[in-house]
Amino acid sequence: MNEQQQSLILESSSRFLPPQGVKLSYGTAGFRADASLLQSTVYRVGILAALRSLKTQSVIGVMITASHNKVSDNGVKIADPNGGMLSQHWEPFADALANAPSPQELIQLINEFVKKEGIQFDGVKHAEILLGRDTRPSGEALLEAAKEGVASIVGAVAMDLGILTTPQLHWMVWARNKGMKASEQDYVEQLSSSFRCLMDLIPSQRSKFDGTNDKLVVDGANGVGGLKLKVLEKLLNGLLIEVRNSSEDGGVLNEGVGADYVQKEKVAPHGFGSSDAGIRCASLDGDADRLVYFTVNPESSGAIDLVDGDKILSLFALFIREQLSILNEREGTKNNHQARLGIVQTAYANGASTNYLKQLGLEINLTPTGVKYLHEKAAEFDIGIYFEANGHGTILFSESFVGWLEATTNELSARSKGSDAEKAALRLLATSRLINQAVGDALSGVLLVEVILQHMGWSIHRWNELYHDLPSRQLKVKVADRTAVITTNAETVVVSPPGLQEAINNETGKYSQGRCFVRPSGTEDVVRVYAEASSQEAADSLANSVAKLVDQFLG
Ligand code: 16G
Ligand code: MG
Question: Catalytic center at which residues (predicted)?
Fold first, then answer.
């Protein structure tokens, strides 16, 4: 770093001193904390993003959000050149940068890191950063801090894109680096046109569902998702969406609303009641990267039938598998190719979903919790579908497979226009454009679920009957140091503290169909317990006993 660069960082970083006595960590999905603590962190993430852009010579994204956390929290995370999460290799640097106590130590850290990574500040290479934020009131000031961080690196330019969903920002980074048009308008056009294309390809003999089911009601978590869904909805022919709990409705973000609340508590969000019984409902989280469906139970107030991420995954898998098998039956096309379809879940998916997918003959892969792990695994397939039960997920299509699909579609259109095989290929292509290729996206997820239900001629009840969830219970245990729990095998086995896994096995063995795992949370200071068994009472009891074990071993 030359003198000018050093003094630029020194000057601006002295206006963003880190709070005393707080240690921040990049975590599963970026830095998160009470918003009042984050000015310096976000400023420094601005610097980090500029360095990442210089290093990769690509556009990088910075998203300011704390997702489903409470409104007074905020957070910041980086979107890498492929639109995915920051390379794990850079996470330790992110931690060190956020926690450097003084401007001098910050400069020293950056100096060492840029030397190690061979990053050059020659004024010729430029860096470009896209900045977005969710609807949190603290977002505007934090975005200004990120801008200052970017501006403190010579040759780096920040583009403020204002209020976006997290997946929109990731998509824009992905699209920009592919040389595609990448504005919010382009996102909206790509999603709506591929949705309409899929609607046009619905087989005519499939029956539409009845009137009461035609409307979809979406809970927007009082956040950004509802706002953006309203924009999209205008361009969707044949789909009626009513948005409730949108940010402009005045409710508190994530309070008694949103996908996290609905999935964990298994109750209807605020604004939904018995008059909605039987209607197809969906819930987004605060930054619209999670999606779950539900119906309100007419008999008991607030109770719902939850259709979670595992079931969305199953619906997507069925649809993709159907199109692939139609394509495989075609005759006489060149370049025959059996697509490799891979399913990716975590061990914390409901066991009934895994059994169901296995029964379909699909290849199931387990990874640790966190989008970055699932995404990485799914990218190994021609088509990789990943979901967490909490509603995070998407379908990835490899570039080579999309190229093959395009060639095959052209060939089929020329030779057998209107054939089933051509339609199946067109459906897969449209799906690859509709479903976000950068990260799980509740808005593109909703559109794909909706069009698949229409394609199948299914109500939400029919979909929910694909399999029945095994009774399960999730608990969290407060411990002094959650990092004392170390797991392996996709978080299914505890290796430390010694003896804990044997004790869990011993307990689990007492229950019919018992499964139980523990793992340290990536976002909270707790250890999570997940238990399944043949009845709800048994699952509760297994979870409670294992929570006690965790307490004993770590207390
Ligand atoms: C974050 C992750 C999510 C994961 C959750 C687990 C991303 C974008 N988000 O929200 O995938 O399910 O953390 O949190 O990676 P936990 O470890 O506290 O249960
Ligand atoms: Mg989220």
Answer: 67
Binding site for Mg(2+), by residue number, is 67, 285, 287, 289
Containing 384, the helix (H) or strand (E) segment is strand 383-387
Half-sphere exposure of 361 (CA within 13 A, CB side): 4
Antiparallel, parallel or unpaired: β 515-520 and 526-532: antiparallel
- Give pLDDT tens digits for 417-440: 899 999 999 999 999 999 999 999
Output the CA angle 155-160-165, nearest 5 degrees: 130
What predicted TM-score, i.e. pTM, was given to this entire model?
Answer: 0.96
Give the residue-averaged pLDDT of 45-62.
97
Name the residue of 78, 86, 369, 483 to mutate for ligand 1: max ligand atoms within 8 A of Cβ. Answer: 369
Tell me which of 170, 392, 528 to substitute to probe ligand 1's pocket, judged by most ligand atoms within 8 Å of the beta carbon: 392
Q: Burial level of 459, CB count in 10 A (0-12/13-18/19+)? A: middle
Residue 23 CA, chain-centre distance (Å), reads 26
Token digits of residue 122: 């020659």
Of 105, 124, 118, 129, nearest to 48 (Cα)?
A: 129
Query: Would you state the pLDDT for residue 525?
Result: 85
pLDDT digits 0-9 by tens, 32-44: 999 999 999 999 9
Query: Computed from CA positions of residues 183, 185, 189, 195, in that sequence, does the dihedral angle turn out positive or negative?
Result: positive
d(CA 247, CA 225): 8
Question: What is the Cα–Cα distance from 282 to 257, expressed in whole angstroms?
Answer: 11
State residue 209's pLDDT score. Answer: 52
DSSP readout, 307-324? E-HHHHHHHHHHHHHHHH
C-alpha of residue 479 to centroid of ligand 2, in Å: 25
pLDDT at position 279: 94
Predicted confidence band of residue 334 (pLDDT cuts 50, 70, 90): low
Name the token pair of 247: 């940010």
Q: Does the annotation mark 314 as catalytic?
A: no
Percent over 90 (pLDDT), the chain = 90
487-511 pLDDT per residue, tens? 999 999 999 999 999 999 999 999 9
| Structural domains of the chain in order of their starting residue, each with its CATH number | 3-163 (3.40.120.10), 211-305 (3.40.120.10), 310-464 (3.40.120), 472-554 (3.30.310.50)
Q: Is the CB of 287 under 6 A from ligand 1?
A: no
Please report, to the nearest 10 degrees, the dihedral formed by the alpha carbons of residues 284, 286, 289, 290 taken in order: -40
Average pLDDT, the chain: 94
Q: Is the pLDDT of residue 211 over 50?
A: no
- Written as six digits, the tokens of 370 are 């966190």
